[in-house]
């Protein structure tokens, strides 16, 4: 059954351990108002530690994924109320993107349509991203007279080579899903009518993995990028040992099924977690 956030700007369903979360302002192309940002944090809070949720997918109702920040409600109306109000709405927006970057469960952006500016925050926050060929990605800020703020410039530089990031930010031209995949903004692009099936397939693979290892892995990939090799090596030793303190049996079961039972090969898929003794 579809659930709706307090103010109706976010909807979600949980089906077979996948939480399908959607921006729900289709008539406003799912642009992010302060209300939507508050609602999204509420929904992320509700879902994060539910036992029946293993993967969260973020998509949009209607023709947009998200047309970025709401130019009226997030920028103009808020700026009119002064700096305090501006900082407050920034905290809420950046807050849920940060929450999503370090989410307990695996996350996938399913980009079904328009993805602009501020939308790059949640795009990057999701661990994986799949787009419709028909989707359009753009740093449109330059077209209306601001720099790509709210993390958008950082996302472009993280995901794109320097020349592409610079062109993308300065030119204000859109790229479609296919180009976004070639550039590395998303993992893959495919026709819109195949997008959900592919995302479901990927989510189902993730659902079979050891969840403690999955969370440690996604955090490690985000953390080590800015560390020196030696610092990364140290971080990874400690992250592995911390993961063992939450789940000391999973990897032992994995080794057992490979070495003793010969019932699976780690190079070809995940071990059978249902056989693990409690
Ligand atoms: N902020 C505020 N309102 C927005 C919006 C945004 N970012 N994006 C869309 N809307 C509103 C429009 O004002 C319009 O409102 P109305 O029905 O009350 O007139 C409604 O959503 C539909 O938008 P419309 O432009 O008619 O839809 P479209 O399908 O023809 O075009 C876009 C879609 C996304 C190309 C276009 O809406 C657009 O350029 N939006 C702004 C994108 C942007 O620059 N975002 C970056 C913000 S950092």
TrEMBL record:
- What GO MF terms are annotated? feruloyl-CoA hydratase/lyase activity
The catalytic activity of this protein is classed by the Enzyme Commission as 4.1.2.61
Offer one Pfam family short name for this entry: ECH_1
Give the source's domain of life in one word: Bacteria
The enzyme's first-digit EC class, named in words, is lyase
Could you say which protein family the record assigns here?
Answer: Belongs to the enoyl-CoA hydratase/isomerase family.
Q: What is this protein called?
A: p-hydroxycinnamoyl CoA hydratase/lyase
Q: Taxonomically, what lineage is the organism?
A: Bacteria, Pseudomonadati, Pseudomonadota, Alphaproteobacteria, Sphingomonadales
